[in-house]
# Entry
Amino acid sequence: MSSTSQKHKDFVAEPMGEKPVMALAGIGEVLGKRLEEKGFDKAYVVLGQFLVLKKDEELFRDWLKDTCGANAKQQGDCYGCLKEWVHGFMS
Amino acid sequence: MSSFSNMSAEEISSLLDEHGIKHGPVVDSTRNLYEKKLKEAMAKRKQAKPSPDKTFYREEEEEVTYVYRTPTKSENFMESRPYMRSKPEWTAEELEHSASYSGYSRSSEYRGRDYDELSHKMPVGAKTAPIRSGQDAPKAPKSPRLIPLWVQFLCFLAVAVFLYFVFSSMESSEPLKVIE
# Structure
């Protein structure tokens, strides 16, 4: 099992509230800007997309790649982060 | 290719089901993604169709080896050209140290492939010549050879033999002597 980053741990530890999209693991400044331009300016909007894609890993990764050009690692980090957050706060 | 933008969400949803693509609701934010997935799925289906042609080739052995050899053959021929250019370099500069070693590593690789190619080609070469005339009639779209196959074959052999001679002559002399 790969270890999670500090960013991941910080995100899944508390409700996301109004956190910006760059608070998500795997999403840095560059990707964050691209997502904001497409209207995904808050983490909860990406969460919404994650849920609409039925929390499916492949769909979410493909969507993330198409929307902001995330590479495989970034896709995985973001997916893992959201998945764990949902597990902690929505189940 | 049908334009997906004219389709309703339900139509796209049913198309996704047809192709066996797992999906969620087709809403504004997911539509692009699903359209792209459908395009890929349709392209794959189209690609799957030409495979029966390849099975046709497989039934006739000689044709298969001929077809599959052409890309590697042209590839090898492309590689042999830089070697032909480097030949005058070597003779002119009297075997410069670094150039000769890099040349050897390349020539040894080249030779390795060379012999593989030769072992494969020997039985096939005899067959492809008479078959080619027969093949021309059924297979029109095949690109015509500017240089006949046997000429390419000879050049190939000549370069290989030359490289072998150079290589063997170099092994006898010591590296230090070459610098001087």
